[in-house]
Amino acid sequence: MSILRQCPYPATLVLAVALFVVPVGAQEKPVDKPADKPAGKPVPAPAPVPEAKPIDLVLCLDVSGSMNGLIDSAKLRLWDIVNELARLKPTPNLRVALYSYGASSYPAATGWVRKEVDLTEDLDDVYKALNGLQIGGGTELVARVSKAALEQQKWSQDPGALRLLFVCGNEPVDQDQQVSLDEVAALAKKTGVVINTIYCKYGQDNEIAGWARFAAACGGKHIDIDQNKAVRQVVVRTEFDEQIIKLGEQLNKTYVAYGREGQKRAANQLAQDANAAKAVPAPALGAAPPVGPSAAAIARAESKATALYRNSAWDLVDRMKEKDFDLSKLKEEELSEELRKLKPEERLAFLQKKAAERAELQKQIAELSAKRQKKIAEELAKQPRSDTDKALDEAVKGLIREQAKGKGFEVPGDKP
What we know:
By secondary structure, the protein is of the alpha/beta class.
């Protein structure tokens, strides 16, 4: 018998109720799922950081009796040259070497040439050697010092490297009776080194043409300079100077020395801070001594805030940036006292904290430096330009900008 027959209610009523009665739980309205958002544009991957290109820079400075202005200018302006290089994109791997020539105290067998520093990333070593140069009359052999630098240095073999040699001085360029300029030019082309000549004017302008021809034969450029201009230039003071110096001093506290040479090189860092502080232009006759930090000290502090100031050979914070860094592989006696006091598991965190402190200080210095440079440019624009000859740093920076572009570097702010 069917259920409908047993039910006392009319069949039509039962069917109607069955159609409208909903199972328990079915009354809950299902939650609407949010509609799928239309697919947006794919987020582009971050642009890869361009790989650093090498720049090898060799300075050959005449130290004969008339070159006081050149050497003083180099002491005053080396860090400005470094800062110019730091502007290049991508940031280069910079190595610098230093030669001096023309001093009568140097051995005649070497052509009165002396190698001061081999190509190195340690800019403090270069500045130390520069501050140790002494002037003394002698014979200036441009070909000899150029050949020595070309042959003795282990120039970068990277095909994208910029290899530059600057030879600075005066007197006739062709005084060498043993080594010819043509021989040097051929060697420069063979090694892929560009030789630029900088002539320090002293009233014998008939000598200039020979220096220019030598540079052209070596694929380089020639510039005449007033070797005393940097020494005479009026320093523009800004409200940012003292702040940059103080931040530079704090920066020193983020270095963590290691290895046999660590403490010695940390001490050299402080010594070169002191040398930069002493590199002050002599005041004009009857003028008061300059007040405030030296421009060289400020420029050095700015350099230490750039990627070009690297000390991985003795500083663990810089060493930590390298791919093969492994703190556990260092022997206990190679560590500084402050690290030895920590438990092994605490040491890496200590270095990371120092790295963060350094990055923040470098950022602050860079920001203040930009404001300082803007203020200086505004003040210099108000001053009449009474001379056309460049100072040493102006000549070197201009040539570096031009020749770096030829190797694919970009110079921010320069018009194409």
